[in-house]
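Morning!

This is the sequence you dropped in the shared folder:
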Amino acid sequence: MKATPAAAPRPSRARARTTSIAAFVVLAALVPTTASASGTQEVEAELAYVCALPSGQLPATVRVSAEFPERAEADEAFTPSGVTTTVELPAEAVADLTARDAAEVRAATRLAVGVAQNSATATATWRGGAEPVALPGSGPLTLVTRGDVPSVAGRSDGDLTFSAGALAIDLALGAADPATADPGSLTVECTLAEDAPGQGLLATVPVGAGGAGASGSPSPSGSASASDPAGDGQRDTPGSEAAERQSERSPEVLENTPGTADRNAPPCQYDEQHPPTSRSLNAYITGYTNVRKQKAASYLPPSCMLIEQGDYLPGPPDPEYLIFDMVSFGDFHYQERKETPPFQSTFLSFDFTPVKATMVLEQKGPVRIDSRMKMRLSDFTTITDTYVRAPLVLHVLDLEVNGTPLDVGPGCRTETSLTSKDPDPVNHPGDHLVLYGHGELIPGQTATGYLLLSGGVLSGEATIPAFTGCGTDGEDLDRLLTASVSGPGNLIKQVQGQTCSIANPVYETPNTSGECTQDLQPYVIPVAER
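The structure's back. Tokens below.
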């Protein structure tokens, strides 16, 4: 229905009130409200584990929650979502950590998940990370990690079961006084308790016409665990005909690495104003940022980052690891400005009013990238923890409601940078966003997680500051924007693509994956992941 224009101009107070209402509608629709997904089953499993701590073998409780589809088709890949792993370690674990002069801990978990269908099996690794938490003065230590997990596809009809197995917990320790010695790190290995209900069964997803239905979970005796995925304690001899048949039928586990989008991205090149050095890298980043007040997410399109890689320097001594630290710096690069390209989003407010918002993130200082590489001396596995610290101010450039522009003025922005809790505030003061990435390289295998050179997923949590400078002609829209958008608890998930090394470019060949285009732009344009 098309509204009829008023015959005469409204009084200024009425016009101001209408504009304010329009502003509120716009702010409520800056990000679309996410509806609960249909056809999913929510899983919450509480499992008993035994963990090897310095003080001995101790019991622990592990709770795993996730969402699975109610049903899938054969060869249809799906990814469990909302995966959260909560580990409750006993009070003895706290004593073990405080004995190392630790005051806080950051956890990363690796849960082996057995995936079985009929008699065929596969194993997936569910990884999670967490922000630092203070060690409690007494009682147990609770660690909550979240992360991305591999996609899975059933190869034939029949129930696809997911069962928890071995759990490894990497603990990065922080000292109460930064001036004291680094308490180092610790890896805790945990095994599923023998009396764990259902042998660790997490979920059952019927595949094709042969599935038993979402409520038709198999009995414990018929389920598969990650330690014995086949469920019968027997495995086929490698190379045998039975093993080959099982391999053909095995569920397919697809490690989620950053995808490649079409080359629909702004240029990302060094130039005369930004000449490259022997350490110059460039890469695209993209992703989503939640706006907690709106219970939804805002999309950041591929943006160019120019990076100067630092030197590896010896880190603190550790009897179990060889440690190196590296500090690199980066800048957004868009039309000679240190900012992202303007990004537009169009939504339907209240399901019928179209709203379009144009925004940009402006860099207010260098982006610092701190990487710590730890090579385990026992097996040469390399673990890398990376913190990206970025001072970024959010600008709102334009707003439209039902095609009518709402003038927010040229200086509508957050008062300060988006902020995060910094794990090392003494050495990194000031307002900035903190993103964290965890990578792992096992000799002879492909690296997983985030590494500066190969990219991957970075995550964090931000507080959106209050807005300032919004509105024209005497109208102050700052408080409306602040009330609708600003606040803490906004989760961020960014994906960085493979970097291009300007001094040593790797081009696409029949036998080589491309890292650089012929004009030295990043070959890989990553795809945002929710």
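Headline: The chain is about 10% helix and 45% strand.

More detail when I'm at my desk.
O.
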